[in-house]
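Quick one:
INPUT:
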């Protein structure tokens, strides 16, 4: 937007950061969300709800395990929200809290797992991470799954490095990525170059 509005008269320059950029940014993001993102995720949520509804009460253990897994897998994302909404819907219609218990337990897993791991395996975490992980005890008990997000972001599997020579010996690797690893022994999944 700075490039689009670079020829705006200097008298209106003060309006850019406080009015023009925020309003246009909101309109653009709202348009993208309403017309592009929402239809896709509405179909995904409809599919998830239909799938969970068809599991029914006959598979309560399986349904509870799936809902708990959905709660812990994306830490506040769309699967988490779909599982919570489904469990709330079942609870309000049947007054059976067993699925809600599975959802609550699944939502507590990520922050509590990080807190326990940082307590037991202190040498695997930095000092600031250990301090931050201590707060995850409270967040986990309070059912705040998002406490695990900073750790998932910092230690995601996409950030681990793999030896290029291991990959370069594989028949499937050479045509795809071998040119990215020339001259070095490490390849990082975060960037297209070594």
């Amino acid at each position: 937007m700075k490039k689009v509005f670079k020829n705006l008269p200097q008298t209106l320059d003060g309006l850019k950061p406080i009015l023009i950029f925020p309003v246009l940014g909101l309109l653009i993001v709202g348009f993208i969300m309403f017309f592009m993102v929402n239809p896709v995720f509405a179909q995904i949520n409809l599919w998830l709800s239909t799938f969970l509804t068809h599991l029914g009460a006959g598979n309560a253990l399986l349904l509870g395990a799936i809902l708990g897994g959905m709660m812990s897998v994306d830490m506040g994302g769309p699967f988490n929200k779909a599982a919570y909404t489904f469990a709330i819907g079942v609870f309000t219609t049947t007054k059976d809290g067993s699925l809600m218990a599975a959802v609550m337990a699944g939502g507590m897993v990520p922050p509590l797992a990080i807190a326990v791991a940082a307590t037991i395996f202190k040498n695997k975490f930095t000092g600031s991470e250990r301090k931050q992980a201590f707060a995850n005890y409270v967040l986990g008990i309070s059912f705040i799954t998002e406490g695990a997000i900073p750790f998932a972001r910092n230690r995601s599997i996409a950030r681990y490095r793999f030896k290029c020579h291991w990959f370069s010996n594989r028949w499937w690797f050479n045509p795809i990525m071998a040119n990215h690893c020339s001259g070095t022994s490490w390849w990082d999944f975060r960037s297209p170059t070594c």
